[in-house]
Amino acid sequence: MEILLVFIIGLLHAGGLYMLLRRSMFKMIIGLILLGNGANLLIFLIGRLVKGKPPVIDEGLKVFADAYADPLPQALVLTAIVIGFGLQSFAIILIKRVYNVLETDDLDELNSTDEEL
Amino acid sequence: MSNPYIILPIVFHMAAAVILMFCWFQPRVQKLLSILFSLIGLGISVWLFRLVWHEGFQVTQAGNWDAPFGISFIADTLGSTLGLLSSISLLAVSIFSTVSMREERIKFGYFPTLHFLIMGLQGAFLTADIFNLYVWFEVVIISSFVLLTLGGKKTQLEGALKYVSLNLLASTFFLIGIALVYGLTGSLNLADVAIKIGAVENRGLVNMTAGLFLVAFGIKSALFPMYFWLPASYHTPPAAISAIFAGLLTKVGVYAMVRMFTMVFIGDTFMSITLSGLAALTIISGGLGAIRQQHLGKIFGYLIICHIGFLFAGLGIFTELALVGTIFYLIHDIVVKTNLFIVAGLMNKLTGSPFIKEQGGLYAKYPLLSLLFAIPLFSLVGIPPLSGFWAKVYLIQASFETREFLLVGSIIFGSFLTLWVIAKVWSESFWKDKPEASSSGKPWSTFSTKEKWGILVPIMFLSIVSLYIGLAAENIISLASRIAAELMDPSAYINSILGMK
C-alpha cells in the first residue's frame, strides 16, 4: 500500500510541476492543485500507515503496548485540505476575473505590470 | 513563565476585524473604529514587549496540553519586538487609509481584512509550532490576496495573479517541508524539533528539508532568484496597501527564515554558503533593478528586494555580531519601508504621476514637506546618524571578521546603489522643474484640513520612530544584541516551551 502511495505522490508532483511550466493560466492552477494534493498525501503517508490499530490506550495500561495509528497527520491533512481548498477557489475566481478583463489565457501576454518603465 | 494572556494581540485583532465587519456599510464608523483598535492594539503590543523585556519569555500551552503535544505560544524578545513594529505600522497605515482609501474599497471590507492580516502576523510571531506557523502564514496571504485585488483594476488583477500563484507554490513547498520534518523527528513543536533534529542520522534528508524551507520562505521574502512577483505586484494597489505589504509581508518570511535557520537547521556549511551567496545576489540584482525603473512604486519595490539581501547576509554569516546587524536592520526596515510607500503615495498625488520623469518641482513648491520626505529617504540610504547606518556597520564588521569579502563588497555596492537611486529620485522629483506637458497633480492647498492631518500624522509618526532608531541607536543595539544572543543560544527558548528549568 505504501509503495503505491509513493508512486501516486511522485506522479502528482511531476504532473503538477509539468502543468505549472505550461503557458496557460488555466493549466497553471490545475498544476497548483495537483501539487497541493501531492503534498497532502505526503503528510498522510509520512505518519507511517498502520492498519486497524486505533490510537486508544487499552484499559489498565499507561502507555501503548503496540504500534498504533498516528492521529496527528490526519488532523494536519484535514487542516491543509481546508486551507488549500479556500486558497484554490480564490485563485480560480481570480483567474476567471483576469481572463474576463484581459481576454487572454496566455501567461506570456500578462506583461503589462513588468514592461512599463 | 506561563501566561495565557500573551495571545491577546491575536484575539484582539480578530475581535476588531469581526466588529468592523458589523459596520460593513458605514465607512465613517469603520474609519474611527479602525484607528481606535489600532491604538489599543499598539497598547497591547507595548505591554507585551515590556513584559517580555522585564520578566523574560512568556509561554502558554493551547488547551493546557503540555508541549510537545499541544500547540505552544511563546512571546520571546524577537517575536514581541516584531509584534510591536507591526502594530506601529498598522497604526500609521490605518490613519493614512482613512483619508486615502476610496469609499468603494472600504465598502468591500478593506478595514476588516487589514485587521485580519495583522492578526495573522501577530500569530506568526507568537507561535512555537511549525504547522501552526503554516496556518498563520495562510491567514496572512489570504488577507493579502484580498487587499491586493480589492478594487479590481486591470494592473491590480494582473499583479495579483503573479503574486497569488507564486505564494500558493511557496505554501505547497512549506507544507512538503513540514511533512518531512514530521517524518524525520515525529514532532512539530519548534523546541522539540530543535532537540530531535540533531539526532537524525540521515543528514542528506535534513539538508533537503532545509532546502525546501529555503525555497518556501525565499519566495515569501523575495530572495534572489524568487523575487519576480514583488516588483510585478507591489506598485499596483493603493499606497496604503502597498505600505503595509512593503513593511510587513516580506519581513514575516525573513522572520520565519531566521527562526528556522537559527533553531532547527544549523551548523551546515553548505547552507550557510548558499545563504550568503543568495544574499549577495539579492542585494546586487535588487539594486540594479531599482536603477532601471522609472515608476516610483517599482523603484521602491526593487529597493525592498535589495534590502532583503542585507537581512539574509547576516543570517548567512551567522555570528552573533551579524545577527545583531540583521535584527537591527529588520527593525529599521519595517518602519522605513512603510513610511516610504506612504510618502510615494503622497508624491503621486501631489504631482499627478507615478513616474519620476513626469514629477518635479516638489522642493520649490513644498520645502517643508520635502524636509519631512527626506527623513525616510535618507534613513533608507543609511546616512549617519539616521537609522539605516548602524545596522550596516554591524553587518560589514561581521563579514570582515569571518573574512567573507564577497559579502562586504556586495553590501557596500548595494548601499551605493541605494544612494544612487535615492539621489536620482531626489533630483528628478524634488529639484528638477516640473515638465510642462505632464499632468498636473492635486496641489497641497486644495487638500482639506482633515486630509492634511490624515496624511501628515502617519508620516510624522513613522519618521519620529525611525529618527529614534537612528539617534537612540544604543537602545536598539542593546535590544538587537539581546535578541541575537537568544537566537545564537536557543536553550532559553527551548527550556521555557518544554517547561524545563
CATH fold descriptor of chain A: Helix Hairpins
Report, as a whole number of angstroms, the end-to-end distance of chain A.
55 Å
Mean pLDDT, all residues of chain B: 90
Q: Based on CA inertia axes, which overall geometry of chain A fits? A: elongated
Sheet/helix structural class of chain B: mainly alpha
Indicate the low-confidence ranges of chain B by residue numbers.
none
Number of strands of chain A: 0
Summarize the biggest pleated sheet of chain B: 2 strands, antiparallel
Biggest interface between protein chains, with counts per chain?
A-B, 36 and 40 residues
Largest beta sheet of chain A, briefly? none
List the helices and strands of chain B in order: HHEEHHHHHHHHHHHHHHHHHHH
Strand content of chain A: under 5%
How many independent structural domains of chain A? 1
Kindly provide the radius of gyration of chain B, computed on alpha-carbon positions and rounded to a whole number of angstroms: 22 Å
Cα separation of the termini of chain B: 11 Å
Radius of gyration of chain A: 21 Å
User: Which residue ranges of chain A are poorly predicted, with pLDDT under 50 across at least 5 consecutive positions?
Assistant: none
**How large a portion of the residues of chain B is in β-strands, by DSSP E?**
under 5%
Helix and strand sequence of chain A:
HHHH
How would you name the oligomeric state of the polypeptide chains in this document?
heterodimer
Number of continuous helical runs of chain A: 4
Q: How would you concisely characterize the structure shown here?
A:
The complex is a heterodimer of chains A (117) and B (501). Chain A is mainly alpha-helical.
